[in-house]
Design brief:
single chain; mainly alpha; Rossmann fold; two-stranded parallel sheet; two-stranded parallel ribbon; 4 strands
């Protein structure tokens, strides 16, 4: 969905946070493990740096990843805002079985993710407090339709 949405803009960027973790070749720690916090902090800061760089250059920039409130959502948003970047948030919340199916359809590298870890991450989005109003439940909704919904929300927010 994010890739489709970014392509609708004359200058659009889709930053997939998972790709930033794959840059690490030595000393990589699975990001859902408790001992990965320092690594995850560096990776998410690099994501925010890249997003800010693209946004300042005039690109509509989408940061696509698991940014859990109380974990890295606030730090990435704060880093972008401190650099004068407007930040809009949308939370997609498909059912867990759809998440697991989508992971199974990914590349071999991404399929290595522990399903139990995905379940734990999915549970983290069960109650996200003040961000609950930003949730889009996209069960049974195509990527194209979800992109339309997101674009509509962004347009309404900007107006």
């Amino acid at each position: 969905m994010a890739r489709l949405l970014a392509s609708r803009f004359e200058r659009g960027v889709h930053l997939l946070t998972d790709e930033f973790f794959h840059f690490i070749r030595g000393g990589y720690i699975e990001p859902w493990l408790s001992e990965s916090h320092e690594q995850n902090t560096v990776v998410m800061s690099a994501v925010a740096d890249a997003a800010a760089k693209f946004a300042r250059a005039g690109y509509f920039t989408i940061v696509d990843g698991i940014l859990i409130p109380g974990w890295f959502y606030e730090s990435v948003r704060g880093q972008l805002r401190s650099e004068g970047i407007d930040v809009a948030t949308v939370v997609l919340r498909p059912p867990l079985d759809i998440c697991l199916t989508r992971i199974a359809e990914r590349s071999e590298r991404d399929r290595a993710v522990d399903p139990a870890a995905i379940g734990q991450l999915w549970e983290s989005f069960g109650d996200i407090g003040e961000l609950e109003s930003l949730v889009i439940k996209n069960d049974g909704v195509s990527a194209e339709s979800t992109a339309e919904i997101v674009l509509s929300r962004l347009t309404a927010t900007a107006g």
